Amino acid sequence: MLYIVGLGLGDERDITVRGLDAVRSCSRIYMEAYTSLLSLGLDPAALANLEKLYGKEITVADREMVEDRVDQVLSKAADTDVAFLVVGDPFGATTHTDLVVRAKKMGVEVKVIHNASVMNAIGVCGLQLYRYGETISIPFFTDEWRPDSFYEKIQNNRKLGLHTLCLLDIRVKEPTWESLARGKKVYEPPRFMTVNTAISQLFEVEEARGGSAYGRDTLCIGVARLGSDDQKIVAGPMEKLLDVDFGPPLHCLIIVGETHPLEEEMLEFYMIK
Fold first, then answer.
1. What are phi and psi of 34, to 5 degrees?
2. What is the pLDDT of residue 97?
3. DSSP strands (E only) in the chain
4. What pLDDT, in 10s, does the model give residues 33-47?
């Protein structure tokens, strides 16, 4: 059996009782660590906390393992119970849908145990979940690569009066371009996009596109460490959020569409005064 277990958003205690039972029954435990991270990160002490609570040794599954060597994990699940831990909910990323497809094609039985994810926990900011349009991802810009295909999605959401949830890039164990060219991988230090960086990039794209999808006065909400005890939520004009220190990762951003009076009442609690 392959158990795909959602861990929730905060720390090691956010796993469900069903999820914890599954993990403790498995002989091998893998933790996916590139589409998202728990607030406690991946330092050895934090991993030790997970292992202490779960009573199992955890193997961190980086991007290379998940994308290139996941069949090794699945082959083990053909003979024994294996748990694959995912921050948030298992289907918060298409990577994990691909994992299920591969497992089923190999004849491996799969059981999914759900948990809270950014896609539903974001309701804490007061915007109603059914008033969101298509979610977008904003990657880090580089000198050579400045993708802006998300712009049309924001524009379409705004035309329909819908809110846009922007998921911000995280880069964990990413090889440098120079090392790839030399054939020997050297990895970048971990990076996590801030609300401030995302807004700066969005301004650059709007200036280049000129479609008035949003502007400096557009109401936005910056969210940091969603689901943690020290989560931070600040609402205000996009330009003013540039000056807010949201603290440690992970961050996300919401571009607000048309609002219902009840949404406006909730937003008042988070508005920059």
1. -140, -20
2. 87
3. 2-6, 28-32, 58-61, 82-86, 110-113, 136-138, 164-168, 170-171, 191-192, 219-224, 232-237, 251-255
4. 766 666 545 556 677
